[in-house]
Fold this protein.
Amino acid sequence: MQLLLAMLCGMGVGAISAYLLARAQAQTLREKIKNDLVAERATMLEQLQGKDQQIQDLRQTLHQQQGQLHQQQQALTAEAAHRAAAEAKISQLPVLQQQLHQGQAERTQLTAQIAHLQTRLSEQEQTAQAKLALIDQALTAEAAHRAAAEAKI
């Protein structure tokens, strides 16, 4: 019985020792897991902060690019309006060229008419001067004739 009691005591001491040893190992394992989880959580928080910063940077870049896109769209719209105005002017070019040719032809015709009228005016002035000279001669001859007639009287 003593042997049985000793065996039971030995088994109890062994069980308590095994329990304490298992408990200590479990506590060590729990601490190790807890430390690993804390470290992993800290790493994940750093990664999360990095991702948040990346998202903020990307949003800022997106906002800037949207602003640039808006400016470029406005510039493109203005350029399209300028182009349309230029094309409208170009489409009028044949009509304007025809009007220019007509104007040049009219100018040539009017220049010829002016030259003709100047020639006629010059001829009429010469004719008028010749007639005035004849009238002056006639008046001079008549005055001489009167003077001679009065001298005879």
User: Anything to note?
Assistant: The mean pLDDT is 92.
